[in-house]
Amino acid sequence: NPSDADPRYAAKAAKYQPFEFVAADLVVWLDGRVHPGPGFVEWLVDCLGDGDQGIYRHWGRTSILAEAEACLVENPAKYGHAPNVEQARYYLDSGHEDTDLWQSTFYVMRRNERTLAMGRRWQEEQDRYPDCLLDQIPLPPVIAECGVKVVDLPGGFWDFHGKLFVLEPHRDGT
Question: Of 150, 119, 132, which Cα lies nearest the Cα of 54?
Answer without folding.
Answer: 150
